[in-house]
Design brief:
By secondary structure, this protein is α/β, with parallel strands linked by helices. Helix content is 49%, strand content 18%. The chain contains five helices and five strands. The protein has a five-stranded parallel beta sheet with strand order 2-1-3-4-5, with helices on both faces. Strand 1, helix 1 and strand 2 form a beta-alpha-beta unit.
Length: 130
């Protein structure tokens, strides 16, 4: 079995760099980093990631919550939200309108990243096994 394939969707270049390095140091294969939901949605089918880590607040026409709804409907890839926003309404909207497998608050710690990914993948596997 190969490395877990991760797509990171984060519009802040410093955060994206830091999270990518953490993921790679933890043994994950970061197959692509996107700065907008629109760019990522076009590529998800061909990249076939095992998991997506996505900022809730993204630049562009679409935020992470809207993108997650599309991913949930068309791809089924597990999503972990990454956010610096602890606003109750935003977190509540994300939780109530999309299926996600966890939330990571910025700044992210490697151990939190690792265990959230592991838990998300296990939950996804259990939910989708016969």
């Amino acid at each position: 079995m190969g490395k877990t394939r991760v797509i990171l969707i984060e519009d802040d270049s410093i955060t994206a760099f830091a999270v990518r390095k953490m993921l790679e140091n933890l043994g994950y294969a970061v197959i692509e980093v996107f700065t907008s939901a629109e760019d990522a949605l076009d590529k998800i089918p061909s990249l076939a990631p095992d998991i997506i880590i996505m900022d809730i607040t993204l630049k562009g026409e679409m935020d992470g919550i809207e993108a997650a709804g599309i991913i949930n409907k068309h791809h089924g890839t597990p999503i972990i939200y990454l956010t610096g926003n602890t606003n109750y309404d935003t977190i509540h909207k994300a939780r109530e309108t999309t299926k996600s497998y966890g939330y990571l608050l910025k700044p992210v710690r490697g151990i939190d990243l690792h265990w959230t990914i592991n838990t998300a993948l296990k939950r996804h596997q259990l939910e989708n096994s016969p």
